[in-house]
Design goal:
Strand content: 15-25%
Radius of gyration: 24 Å
Helix content: 40-55%
Structural class: alpha+beta
Distance between the termini: 43 Å
CATH architecture of the largest domain: 3-Layer(aba) Sandwich
CATH class of the largest domain: Alpha Beta
Largest sheet: 7 strands, antiparallel
Strand order of the largest sheet: 2-3-4-9-8-7-6
CATH topology of the largest domain: Protein Transport Mog1p, Chain A
Number of strands: 9
C-alpha cells in the first residue's frame, strides 16, 4: 500500500521530470483516486510555475524606475531636504522588498537533500534507477561528469587502491530543482552506499545531530531505515546514504575524505 509520504516524494520527482515507469503510472492512478494528493500536486505545480514567473519578472530596469520616481516627487516641489528624505525612504523600502523576494525565491529552490538522496538510493538498489556509467575508476567517473554538470565535481582517489575498503560501482545524473546532481554508487562490506552531490544553492545539509570535524559541520540523520550523512564543503553539498548495522558515522566518510587527503 502506497502511503502519502511516498506520493509526496513521487510528486517532487514527477515535477522534476525524474519519475518514470511503473512509479509514474502508479502516481497517475493514485492522483485520480485521491483528491487530497491531486490537490497537493496542483499546489506544487502552481508554486513551481509562480516561482518561474517571479524569476522572469524580477529582471527590472531600476534606472527607469528611479527616473520616474524622482519625476513624480518633483511635481510637488517640496524642499530639497524633504526630497532627499522621501527618496531615501522609498529606495530603502524598494531594496528591502526586492531582498525579501530574492530570499524567498532562492530559499524555495533549496530542497531537503537527505530525502531526495534516500529516495534515489532506494530506487537505485531496487534496480529502478540504472547507472549511466559502470566503472570503478574515479578518473573515468570524474571525466564522465565533465560538461554534464553546472558545477565542478571531481571524485577523490583513494591513496592506496590495492587496500581500498570500498568499491565504486558507477554513477549517473539525477534531476534536482530543474537541474542535475551527481549520484555515485558504492559498496562497502557488502552493503550499498549512495553519494549525492549538488550545489549549495539547490540543497542544504541538515540532520538531528551535528558534528564538527576538521572544521566541517556534518549532519547525521536516519530515515526509512537508512542513515544519512550530509555536509557542505568547497562549494558543494553532499549527502551519503548507507545502512550499516553498527553505525559509525566516520566509516563511510572515507569515500570522500580518505587518509592522505589532509581531511580525515
Amino acid at each position: 500500500m502506497i502511503d502519502h509520504k511516498t506520493i509526496k516524494v513521487w510528486i517532487n520527482l514527477y515535477l522534476d521530470g525524474e519519475l518514470a515507469g511503473d512509479e509514474l503510472e502508479q502516481l497517475k492512478q493514485y492522483i485520480k483516486e485521491c483528491e487530497e494528493c491531486a490537490k497537493i500536486l496542483k499546489q506544487q505545480r502552481d508554486f513551481v510555475d509562480s516561482i518561474r514567473v517571479l524569476k522572469d519578472e524580477m529582471n527590472i530596469d531600476f534606472t527607469d524606475f528611479k527616473a520616474e520616481l524622482v519625476k513624480q516627487i518633483e511635481k510637488f516641489k517640496p524642499e530639497r531636504k524633504k526630497i532627499f528624505i522621501q527618496l531615501s525612504l522609498i529606495s530603502a523600502v524598494a531594496i528591502f522588498l526586492v531582498g525579501v523576494l530574492l530570499f524567498i525565491y532562492f530559499y524555495s529552490q533549496r530542497i531537503d537533500l537527505a530525502e531526495i538522496a534516500v529516495e534515489n538510493h532506494i530506487r537505485q538498489i531496487n534496480g529502478q534507477l540504472p547507472l549511466e556509467i559502470e566503472t570503478s575508476s574515479e578518473i573515468e567517473i570524474s571525466n564522465w561528469f565533465d560538461k554534464k554538470l553546472k558545477f565542478n565535481f571531481r571524485l577523490p582517489r583513494y591513496p592506496d587502491p590495492s587496500n581500498q575498503p570500498y568499491r565504486i560501482k558507477g554513477a549517473r545524473l539525477v534531476a534536482l530543482n530543474n537541474d542535475y546532481a551527481a549520484l555515485v554508487s558504492y559498496e562497502m562490506d557488502g552493503r550499498p552506499m549512495t553519494l549525492l552531490v549538488a550545489p549549495p544553492k539547490s540543497a542544504i545539509p541538515h540532520g538531528k545531530r551535528k558534528v564538527n570535524f576538521k572544521d566541517i559541520n556534518f549532519y547525521l540523520d536516519s530515515r526509512d531505515g537508512f542513515n544519512i550523512l550530509s555536509w557542505t564543503d568547497r562549494g558543494l553539498t553532499y549527502a551519503l546514504v548507507f545502512d550499516f548495522e553498527n553505525f559509525d558515522w566516520k566509516k563511510p566518510c572515507i569515500v570522500c575524505h580518505s587518509q592522505g587527503t589532509g581531511k580525515m
